[in-house]
Amino acid sequence: MKVLGIDPGSRITGYGIIQKLGNRLLHVDNGAIFTDTSGDFPQRLHKIYTGLTEVIERYQPDAMAIEQIFFSNNVQSALKLGQARGAAIVAGVNAGLPVAEYTALQVKQAVVGHGKAAKEQVQQMVKILLNLPEIAQADASDALAVAICHANSVALRTAGKIR
Amino acid sequence: MKVLGIDPGSRITGYGIIQKLGNRLLHVDNGAIFTDTSGDFPQRLHKIYTGLTEVIERYQPDAMAIEQIFFSNNVQSALKLGQARGAAIVAGVNAGLPVAEYTALQVKQAVVGHGKAAKEQVQQMVKILLNLPEIAQADASDALAVAICHANSVALRTAGKIR
């Protein structure tokens, strides 16, 4: 099973593709889509959409995973983040992918083993679990983390250990 | 020139199509896309995207207009609204439409003549300007209002009266 994890943002949208083969997690690719902040906002959303659509066409993942967001600094940033997230999710569902959402707690538990892990611990564990040469760019690392969370929770569901 | 106005929301997305012929504004159609609130959120975003894409294919507008949002009740609703808005805007830019954003003040000024108009006054003026038999559904009416704003501001720009 190949999973595309995404960490959307109005300036930087991280993505990470991993493959689960049996019990092994393999890193396929990761990267980030940078939107030109001087451009108009609809065009920035378009860039997120087309960038992720290209990633999906190239790697043909079986599912998309994304962190569920409940908080933001303020209403302004929530509106911007929401729009970026909407563009990203539409890229997934338009490509026919099931889109799974996970809370930050679920992602941390899946990657580090407990829900109180610091951001740096998550990045370090992503590097170790996927055998990366170095810690990935922050947004790409977060995207890989939610992809790992999805791959493991699907495995657990399949094994009947969680619903 | 044919303009598609939209008023996105995570539960109801209003749309309205008008045509400007010389100085005349003609109503083409209006309606609303209702998303099933029991469904998962990515599928709701997909419904907004596909619903608007169908409207664009049917009426072939020259531009999309949308109200710019700065405020929301809270971060939660801003995130939801943002995602709906992102899905709607991507439907426009993916269809090759220029997407114009207007503030609520600009929309009220364009439709009623001053920026302090109440919601009911805007709805009443939309009905009168477009010769509707009755006031349109609230979200569709708001969508028609921003379409009127765009049609008139493009006319003013073309006439060199505003930049």
UniProtKB/TrEMBL annotation, chains A, B:
Subcellular location, record wording: Cytoplasm
GO cellular component: cytoplasm; Holliday junction resolvase complex
Cofactor(s), names only, from the UniProt record: Mg(2+)
Catalytic activity annotation: Endonucleolytic cleavage at a junction such as a reciprocal single-stranded crossover between two homologous DNA duplexes (Holliday junction)
GO biological process: DNA recombination; DNA repair
Residues binding Mg(2+) 1, per UniProt: D7, D139
Gene Ontology molecular function: crossover junction DNA endonuclease activity; DNA binding; magnesium ion binding
Biological role stated in the UniProt entry: The RuvA-RuvB-RuvC complex processes Holliday junction (HJ) DNA during genetic recombination and DNA repair. Endonuclease that resolves HJ intermediates. Cleaves cruciform DNA by making single-stranded nicks across the HJ at symmetrical positions within the homologous arms, yielding a 5'-phosphate and a 3'-hydroxyl group; requires a central core of homology in the junction. The consensus cleavage sequence is 5'-(A/T)TT(C/G)-3'. Cleavage occurs on the 3'-side of the TT dinucleotide at the point of strand exchange.
Family, similarity comment: Belongs to the RuvC family.
HAMAP family listed in its UniProt record: RuvC
Quaternary structure, from the entry: Homodimer which binds Holliday junction (HJ) DNA. The HJ becomes 2-fold symmetrical on binding to RuvC with unstacked arms; it has a different conformation from HJ DNA in complex with RuvA. In the full resolvosome a probable DNA-RuvA(4)-RuvB(12)-RuvC(2) complex forms which resolves the HJ.
Family matches, as PANTHER family: CROSSOVER JUNCTION ENDODEOXYRIBONUCLEASE RUVC
Annotated protein name in UniProt: Crossover junction endodeoxyribonuclease RuvC
Biological source species: Geoanaerobacter pelophilus
Gene giving rise to this polypeptide: ruvC
